[in-house]
Amino acid sequence: KCAVNVQKLGRGNNFGFLSFFSGRPRTASVKSLEFTTVFQLTREKFIERLEDYPSEKVFFSEKTLESNLFK
What we know:
With 71 residues, this protein is mainly alpha-helical. It has helices at 17-22, 43-50, 54-68. The radius of gyration is 14 Å and the shape is globular.
């Protein structure tokens, strides 16, 4: 496979959200060009934490519906 540089992300950017919300396999990889701090959160733990934040649960439920439209 040949690597293709699609986008350069900077501080505060995120990636993997379509896969995260839809539950489908990811279609891209990320490589850091310098020292990077990464925060990892499983989908299951995220959904569990949303129970404490009803308005955010609605927001992310809508994002899940949107991401499933791209199938």
